[in-house]
Amino acid sequence: MDFLIAILASAVRSGTPVLYATLGEVISERAGVMNLGLEGVMLVGAYTGFAVTKSTGDPWLGLLASFFAGAAITLIHAFLCITLMCNQVVSGLAMVLTGYGLSALLGRSVIGETIAGMTAYKMPFLGDIPFIGPIFFQHNAMVYVSYALIAALCWFLFRTRAGLNLRAVGENPRAADAMGIPVTYIRYFYCMFGGGLAGLGGGYLSVVYAQMWIEGMTAGRGWIAVALVIFGLWNPARAALGAYLFGGVEALQLRMQAMGSSISASLLLTLPYLMTIIVLTIVSIRAGKGILLGAPAALSIPFRREDRD
Amino acid sequence: MIRLKFEPRLDNPAWVNVLIPVAAVVFGLFAGGLLFFILGVNPFEAYWAVLNGAFGSIYGLSEIVTKAIPITLTALAGLICYKMLIWNIGAEGQLCMGAIATVAVVRFFFVDNWAVMFVIMFFAAGIAGGLWGGLAGFLKARWNVNETITTLMLNYVAINISEYFIYGPWKDPMSWGFPFTANFPDAARLWVWGNTRIHAGIFIALAAAMILQVILKRSKWGYEIRVIGENPRAARYGGMDIAKNILLVTFIGGAIAGLAGMGEIAGLHGRMSRGFTMGYGYTGITVAWLSRLSPIYVPLVSFLLGILLVGGDTLQVVMGLPMASIQILQGLILFSVLAAETLSRFRIKIVRVSAGPAEEAK
Question: Which residue does chain B place closest to A95, by CA atoms?
Answer without folding.
Answer: B331
